[in-house]
Amino acid sequence: MANKGGDLLTEALGGFDFKRILGIADALPMPLALIDRNERYLFCNQALAEFLERPRSDILGHGIGEVIGKAAYEIRKPLIAAALKGERQWFAAQYDHPSRGTVAIQTQYLPQVEADGSISGIVILVTDVTEQRVAERALRESEARFRRIANNAPVIMWVTRLDRHREFVNDEYLSFTGVARDQVNAHEWRDFIHPDDFERVVVESMAGEASRRPFSLEARYKRADGAYRWLSSVSSPRFGPDGELIGFIGAAFDVTVAKEAERELRQQVDERTAEVRESEVRLRAIFDSVREVVVLLEPDGTVIQLNRTEASWRDKRADEAIGKKLWEAPTLSAYPEHKEAVSGAIALAATGVPVTRDIILERAGSPTAYLDVSFRPVADRDGSVMYILFEARDVTELKAAQEQLRQSQKMEALGQLTGGIAHDFNNLLTVVVGGLDLIVRRAEDPKLQRYAKNALEAAERGARLTAQLLAFSRVQRLEVRPTLVAPLIANMRPLLRNVLGPGIEKRIQLDDAAIPVLADPTQLELAVLNLAINARDAMPEGGLLSITTSPVTVSDDPELEAGDYVELSIGDTGSGMPEEVVARAFEPFFTTKEVGKGTGLGLSMVYGVARQSGGTARIESRPGEGTTVRLYFRHAEGSQAKLEAEAVAEESEDQAAEPAARVLVVDDDPDVRGFVVASLEDLGYQVAEAADGEAALTEYRREMPDLVVLDYLMPGMSGADVAREIRQAAPEQRILFVSGYNETDAIRAAAPGAALLAKPFRTEALAACVRKVLSGG
Question: Histidine kinase domain: from which residue to which, for each copy (predicted)?
Fold first, then answer.
């Protein structure tokens, strides 16, 4: 069969050396093949064999359907038939590749016409365009993001070609000009320029475009309502893949208020006499911006005037700087390491070049300050530099806020990861705990029962670890309610004495104001206990543990909403932690303790509990100076009487379920489902089961159960989707969700009033929860 293919190729190519042709075909990177009229492969090159991941011996002589599969062949069959009639075919399709999954290909069928006009076969050319499609999709998504961002930006934006055709304008552009989107290329932007600015703007625009560099324009433009507004625009060139200029991208800002203020100021200056003009310029330059420290300098760095803005890093004798060089002034003279940088920046600004610098002021006994400073030349009308305006902006708090935000984002990402891990562990532990529980119940061998009980206790310790992971990830279902922190801590005094021992002094100072906060009392106690144990371990030779509470008001915090909080502070006088350990202290599984002495989940649980309650946790520590952990909890709304009433409220007794109640169990995990079904059948219920959402709805309509036990997270149709479908048909249907997460808010939205049982659980917990739901509890 291969020889026949060779004869056809030799004849088609006019007698060229066939082996040479085969060599050339094998060297081609494009998959290529020849089939005869019976749709059998006469030839395929090495690229096609590698693409199909099959040896040529499994391709040559075989039909197309045998090689590419029946489904793919049926799609191509009409195209092959057309090609065998002499019609060249081209098509794009998806192909299920043996190892790469679904790939995108483009295929051509080229009829091979004999001298007598008959079709002897088809040459098949295949091009793999998977990466091209992925790149095109990514480009489209990128363009869509750009459009969304641009259309939400409060500035005018546009993208043009060299022929001034506007490829894109944002919504602000349309709003300002009053032009409809389909008419953006039917108007002339120069028509909007104020007549007094027209000639200057056109000249500057042409010069800027010719420079092939970013350029700025400032002029008055007519708005859609007829009013002229000052716009400051920046245009940047766009270059093609070969470096050719293809157009410009620009943005314009409305600076009318600033220009009017400048115009009024200039008018005032012009109205002054020549004798006070220089003094007026100085004052205008100094007080253009009053939020930063501003100093007016001679071009040689001599201080002429300055403002009186207070700053923690600024010397109180600021006025003594007048007449001195800036680096010799009281403030900067205390930091001689910056003299060279400051004097160099002033020398450069004196030539007309603006200079910006970041400066860190560090001095023993004083807090470190981070400054953004600028040296801006102030030119006379002839362009010569008359003065240098020095501006210093304190960004210490901004940097601290940025660091807090970075840390918060890192903890959010870790929380998502640990939440997912805990969910999977809870599913596994449900099977382990449930299976061991059934063995304990059913086994008659005392030794087997003892082994099973020991294993069950170990599995439940694993469940507590996943609970700590869920607390850190902030998806654990906390019983958050108004809680009084001070009484809770006071009731823990005996426990803390036993945990800490006699070698550690305890100083507990609790705020007398009974301010309720939003917290889970049990988890809060665990958090305090964890922190107390950490403090004890940090003070092996003894020391002082202090616990204090105080009300605080928070504003401008990157992690916390503005409002009133209670700060719970737990501090020790132990060994402390270096900065790099503090940065990772809240990460799950991070610990500095020896193997076997800590899981690394204690502090992460503390952080998770605080964040899930609407607050946060922060650490202050230095080596040798001890550690303080501060927890912030949001004030709870409501009266003290209401809080006390809620604290003493008792839950009603569970009522026995109706005998032989019908229960439908839905869970995609067969092991978890098997345990729940077996447990409920042992309890005397009539049980049906389903492995997914669609099957659950079908089984529900057939069984009409008294209770649906439903896994919340399932692939495809989730538990929330199933619950909505059931409640639409039967609004009063009793539903019990089981989940490794405890997504309380989402469950309430999916099925109001539905109960929730957290994985893992024993048969007793399942039985009690089922009885309570069936009894209407």
Answer: 420-637
